[in-house]
């Protein structure tokens, strides 16, 4: 007997028929004698609809009320999943985030889970192996007694955090692909499914744009050592495939130099022309951006040719582009740049692999391959196990495919 958390994403609960099929996966595990907690997302498209309603109701919406609205999608599917399981003759009840409770920080719209109290769910397991159907994406901020949500894709994090809280043997993330691929299979049909991927690489892939798992869910899996699988709810419930295991680097036998390619369209580029080339100028630019909670990623400062001024280029999340521009415009009196230029039609393409620690020249090969395709690189960053290039968005697919082939990742 094992204790499992099974998470079903939006497409896996998109209709009552899909919920029934997902419930058959739950039934299989229950019938095998396991204790099961289920975590559900909202029906696919629902959260987008709820977000749009909030914006329509109030342009500068109150974030606490936003959370009340967007958390409702998961309440619906948890109740429906419990009903479908009961209909199959299984003991099941729904749990909202505040009922469990899952405590989160007060950062409405991007709350961080602080604790999960598993007592109620465990009591149900002890009573009659009751299946706990938990709403993903939501929690409770205890001091203010208000609902919080965990940021887009947050049901993955709910699932892994509940698995950690219940000391589960495994967390299975059921989705519309049968595992983690070397890159998004929707963009590169030759992408390969991996049997295993290390926590570190998965963390980089997720934070660099592979939305198959929310970044925070990988962090929690890594810290609490939760064996986490990504697998398909579209498999025959009686003949399921194991999917991809996220695990320790040491548990992976055949290590590639580059294991995956990720890309993110949520980037924007800002260039400040002819700012004074003198001490303190970077602090004058990036200090206020940091104070405004704007996350600057890539930074390039050109060596000055006139010894007096220089150009500085950097990237910010696309969602913060307008805010960054107006902030910098308000600082014109202090920074004295000649012009502020911006671009949002850019994409960041990254290659990830722990093998980069021990191999030189991995990124250089990419620069050459991209230039041979006529793709101009606007900015570059590197770190121990990844490098990223910023390019024109129009070249996204070409660049991802080029790097995927270059590092030998294409399926035969
Ligand atoms: P869910 O609704 O189940 O949470 P998501 O849409 O959030 O599903 O995540 C699954 C999607 O992630 C896949 O359909 C796939 O297009 C995308 N994806 C991006 N990168 C990868 C990758 N490296 N491996 C697998 N899927 C990926
Ligand atoms: N429903 C939420 C979203 O669409 C959470 C999730 O699906 O993980 O972002
Ligand atoms: Mg998701």
Automatic annotation (TrEMBL):
One Pfam family name is ACT
Which keywords belong to this entry?
Amino-acid biosynthesis, ATP-binding, Kinase, Lysine biosynthesis, Nucleotide-binding, Transferase
Any Gene Ontology biological process: homoserine biosynthetic process
Q: Which InterPro entries match?
A: AceGlu_kinase-like_sf, ACT-like_dom_sf, ACT_Aspartokinase, ACT_dom, AKii-LysC-BS, Asp/Glu/Uridylate_kinase, Asp_kin_monofn, Asp_kinase
- Provide the residue positions that the database annotates as binding substrate: 47, 74
Q: Which residues take part in binding ATP?
A: 7-10, 175-176, 181, 186, 211-212
According to the UniProt record, one GO cellular component term is: cytosol
Q: In which pathway does it act?
A: Amino-acid biosynthesis; L-lysine biosynthesis via DAP pathway; (S)-tetrahydrodipicolinate from L-aspartate: step 1/4; Amino-acid biosynthesis; L-threonine biosynthesis; L-threonine from L-aspartate: step 1/5; Amino-acid biosynthesis; L-methionine biosynthesis via de novo pathway; L-homoserine from L-aspartate: step 1/3
Q: Which GO terms describe its molecular function?
A: aspartate kinase activity; ATP binding
Q: Could you tell me what reaction this enzyme catalyses?
A: L-aspartate + ATP = 4-phospho-L-aspartate + ADP
Please report the stretch or stretches of sequence annotated as the ACT domain.
270-354
Enzyme Commission identifier(s) = 2.7.2.4
Q: Which family does it belong to?
A: Belongs to the aspartokinase family.
List the protein's name: Aspartokinase
Which organism was this protein described from?
A: Bosea vaviloviae
Starting at the broadest rank, the lineage of the source organism is: Bacteria, Pseudomonadati, Pseudomonadota, Alphaproteobacteria, Hyphomicrobiales
């Amino acid at each position: 007997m094992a204790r499992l958390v099974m998470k079903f994403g939006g497409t896996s609960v998109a209709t009552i028929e899909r919920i029934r099929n997902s419930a058959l996966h739950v039934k299989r595990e229950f019938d095998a004698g396991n204790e099961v907690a289920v975590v559900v997302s909202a029906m696919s498209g629902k959260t987008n609809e709820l977000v749009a309603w909030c914006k329509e109701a109030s342009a500068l919406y109150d974030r606490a009320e936003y959370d009340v609205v967007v958390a409702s999608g998961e309440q619906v599917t948890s109740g429906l999943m419990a009903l479908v399981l009961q209909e199959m003759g299984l003991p099941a009840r729904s749990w909202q985030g505040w009922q469990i409770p899952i405590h989160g920080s007060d950062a409405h719209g991007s709350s961080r889970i602080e604790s999960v109290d598993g007592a109620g769910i465990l009591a149900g397991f002890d009573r009659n192996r009751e299946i706990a159907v938990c709403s993903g994406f939501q929690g409770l901020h205890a001091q203010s007694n208000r609902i919080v949500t965990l940021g887009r894709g947050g049901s993955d994090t709910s699932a892994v955090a509940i698995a950690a809280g219940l000391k589960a043997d495994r967390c299975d993330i059921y989705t519309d692909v049968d595992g983690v691929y070397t890159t998004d299979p929707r963009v590169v049909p030759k992408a390969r499914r991996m049997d295993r991927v290390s926590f570190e690489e998965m963390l980089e892939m997720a934070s660099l744009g592979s939305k198959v798992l929310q970044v925070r869910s990988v962090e929690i899996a890594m810290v609490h050592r939760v064996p986490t699988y990504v697998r398909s709810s579209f498999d025959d419930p009686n003949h399921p495939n194991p999917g991809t295991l996220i695990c320790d680097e040491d548990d992976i036998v055949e290590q590639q130099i580059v294991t995956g390619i990720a890309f993110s369209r949520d980037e924007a580029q800002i260039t400040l022309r002819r700012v004074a080339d003198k001490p303190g100028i970077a602090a004058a630019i990036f200090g206020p951006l940091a104070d405004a909670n704007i996350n600057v990623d890539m930074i390039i400062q050109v060596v000055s040719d006139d010894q007096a001024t220089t150009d500085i280029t950097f990237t910010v999340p696309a969602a913060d582009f307008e805010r960054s521009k107006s902030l910098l415009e308000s600082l014109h009196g202090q920074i004295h740049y000649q012009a502020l230029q911006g671009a949002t039609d850019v994409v960041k393409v990254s290659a990830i692999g722990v093998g980069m620690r021990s191999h030189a020249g991995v990124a250089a090969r990419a620069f050459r391959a991209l230039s041979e395709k006529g793709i101009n690189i606007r900015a570059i960053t590197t770190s121990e196990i990844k490098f990223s290039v910023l390019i024109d968005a129009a070249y996204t697919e070409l660049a991802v495919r080029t790097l995927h082939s270059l590092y030998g990742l294409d399926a035969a």
